[in-house]
Amino acid sequence: MSNANVTSVKDAIKYAKEHEARMVDLKFLDFPGTWQHVTIPAHRLDEDLFEEGQGFDGSSIRGWQPINASDMQIRPDPTTARMDPFASVPTVSFICNVFDPITGQAYSRDPRYVAQKAVNHLKETGIADTAYFGPEAEFFVFDDIRYDLTPHSSFFAVDSQEGTWNTGRDERPNLGYKPSYKGGYFPCPPHDSLFDLRTEISLVLESMGIQVDAHHHEVATGGQSEIGIRFNDMLTMADELQWFKYIVKNVARRNGKTVTFMPKPLYGDNGSGMHTHMSLWKDGKPLFAGEKYAGLSDMALHFIGGIIEHGRSLISLTNPTTNSYKRLVPGYEAPVKLAYSSRNRSAAVRIPMYASSPKAKRIEFRTPDPTCNGYIAFAAMLMAGLDGIERQLDPGDALDKDIYNLPAAEAEKIPSAPGSLEEALEALIEDHEYLLRGDVFTEDVIETWVDYKLENEVDPTRLRPTPLEYQLYFDI
């Protein structure tokens, strides 16, 4: 339920009482980007909770404390109060910030704190006072997911009643209506079998105060979908992205389905991106509208220059999984070239041309995917853009050609996204000074991110044989 009138601790306590909350759920984000939570009885919801917080074991959270310094504390943000739509008894939910209980200081590895510092840094620069973000997090809805890993075997298998691979399956009866590979964009029911599910998700989002713009089937077969939500200021949008994922997954589950935000769960079809729209405003006025290319201002072009300049390191935070780079390949509408254009969806940065109003003028960074940690990814995008503005970086000429069909000599001149997570992390090691300004990111945050990703994702993926390797090499 919407919390539009909750602006203080007293408002939050009143909100919980008005909705007869019996439990209080405290949610916070781990380092990679997954919500964690602890639940307490409603009688504990008082002003002291917002000041003293709730303790937890930081050594059990991915990427955080060692066991010899494990005590941590979460403090609820009263303005984030919402009734959890999936709890069986009335439960008020808060998004929390993480603190060190010894020093009382905010925890530097808390992703929400990173985003808060980025917002404050923006204001301190005097360039703007508000950064608006609008992510489009695509996802797949499956009917079944199975996988297993052992030292001597591994497999995965996903299934969908609308997967084109099931056109010949005996479903007693098989009624057809299964979108083909790359054939899932905008078909009406009965081909779009997820119409009602997306509507149900949309209504739950709206009931939580998250405004839905539109929903539709996406390009891929097997249940790829998109539900667009209205842009918001950066921190609020990062909070709402967490609610978005939570709601999508839980509505799917209560309908006997499962959701993945993996960028590339299927071979041979389009992956899921998270095209992210951005604009800067000051004193209630848009700053990206002007008389330059595609109706942009000089500031907007410099912002794009920062995204392109730092694109390879930025992508380590906006596309943070090994699976991300199975999407970032030519041929599946993936924006692998660090260029900009109006209307051209094959460029990493696009300037949407749907509307001519200055208020609607924005840029769209198309490379990110929904496995990213929204707080960290949004903060990094903002910092890259601000660096471009402060240094007045020239993004070069717009690329309004079909990038995939350019002559090889011309295509080689355009910088490309990294080809792997390891390559992206190497770029982050070499280029992260722009993230450190205003103490938004710290060296510790960067080092921890790189070490965690290498140790827990890159190395295990590199070391494990795959079924494809058996097909290629077993009888060589």
UniProtKB/TrEMBL annotation:
Gene Ontology biological process terms from the UniProt entry: glutamine biosynthetic process; nitrogen utilization
Residues that hold ATP according to the record: 213, 277-279, 345, 359
Cofactor note: Binds 2 Mg(2+) ions per subunit.
Coiled-coil residues: none
Residue ranges of the TM segments: none
GS catalytic domain residues: 111-476
One Gene Ontology molecular-function label: ATP binding
Keyword Cytoplasm: yes
EC number annotated for this UniProt entry: 6.3.1.2
Span of domain GS beta-grasp: 19-103
Family listed: Belongs to the glutamine synthetase family.
Protein's UniProt name: Glutamine synthetase
